[in-house]
Write a structure and sequence with these properties.
The complex is a heterodimer of chains A (about 80) and B (about 210). Chain A contains 4 helices and no strands. With about 80 residues, chain A is mainly α. In chain A, helix 2 packs parallel to helix 4 and helix 3 crosses helix 4. Chain B has 9 helices and no strands. Classes of the chains: A mainly alpha (about 80), B mainly alpha (about 210).
Chain lengths: ~80, ~210
């Protein structure tokens, strides 16, 4: 398994952030609404450690949550 | 009311309307989802109106089939938007992967299955502590991971979308997440056994 130093560092970060139990992508989708609605500005709401942990490990879910935050913010601004 | 404007509804009113096959509620939700997806993909040159309508149609099917799993922890429309984004991004990633996915995945698969390189870094390239950490990680990969785990991890590190990796390994995204999670747990345990605490890993990674 050939990995260069950049990939080894990235893997070490992911390994070091690993928890014994992690939620999967579908569990995240079930719960993400409560998380994003409690977002204030760019401040992460407390009490969602398992969601934050999954987002660190999963670039696809992270991309979707960023898009969700952006479009909900846009809707809110349009309604104001 | 139809189109892009949503009637204000409580969550239980949305659920009752959609469970009762209320066509007006379904039309409103469809219009809303088309609008929010259009905003999201406005800068993407490869998403047109037909794509948006296809994504929303598939999203509505999934939403209607998943009403019982709505936990009520957010507005119903927030939950529905999250599902629509999941459906849209997944289809878009799948389509993009079709362009050169097979060639790219095969190159990564070969790399994942190649023998590990000779241990030890070139003197002067990295610090001694980081060289020892990299060596411990390579040992852990060599001794702990299955072939599928090596392919999955190498593919993820190479930036191949998980939907593409999952389909090429004949599995789904959740099972792939579990496969990689199990691999990360094995590597973490091996590093701890080799004496690398979380603090030692942090310190080594923060070195220049």
């Amino acid at each position: 398994m050939k990995l260069d130093d950049t990939e080894l560092k990235a893997l070490l970060r992911l390994v070091d952030a690993t928890r014994g139990r992690e939620i999967d992508c579908d569990e995240l989708l079930d719960r993400i609404g409560g998380y994003v609605e409690k977002f204030s500005g760019s401040v992460r709401p407390p009490g969602f450690d398992d969601i934050v942990q999954h987002l660190q490990q999963c670039p696809e879910c992270s991309e979707e949550v960023e898009a969700l935050l952006e479009v909900l913010g846009s809707e809110k601004r349009d309604d104001a | 009311m139809t189109g892009n404007v949503l009637d204000p509804r409580e969550n239980d009113e949305w659920l009752a309307a959609l469970r009762g096959s209320d066509a007006r509620a379904a039309d409103e939700l469809r219009g809303y989802l088309v609008r929010v997806l259009a905003k999201t993909f406005a800068k993407n040159g490869d998403v047109d109106d037909d794509d948006l309508n296809d994504y929303v149609q598939d999203a509505l099917v999934r939403i209607l089939a998943s009403l019982d799993s709505f936990r009520g922890e957010s507005a119903f429309t927030t939950w529905a938007t999250a599902i629509a984004l999941r459906v849209a991004f997944t289809q878009l990633r799948r389509r993009r992967a079709r362009v050169d996915g097979q060639r790219r995945f095969e190159a990564v698969r070969q790399r994942a299955l190649e023998p590990l390189p000779t241990r030890g870094a070139v003197p002067g390239e990295v610090s001694e502590s980081r060289a020892r950490l990299f060596a411990a990680l390579r040992d852990a990969i060599d001794e702990s991971l299955t072939e599928r785990q090596r392919i999955a991890i190498t593919s993820e590190l190479a930036g191949i979308p998980t939907i593409d990796i999952a389909e090429r390994l004949g599995t789904n995204q959740n099972a792939l997440y579990k496969l990689v999670h199990d691999a990360r747990k094995k590597l973490r345990a091996a590093l701890r056994r080799a004496g690398f605490t979380s603090q030692a890993v942090h310190e080594s990674l923060s070195e220049r």
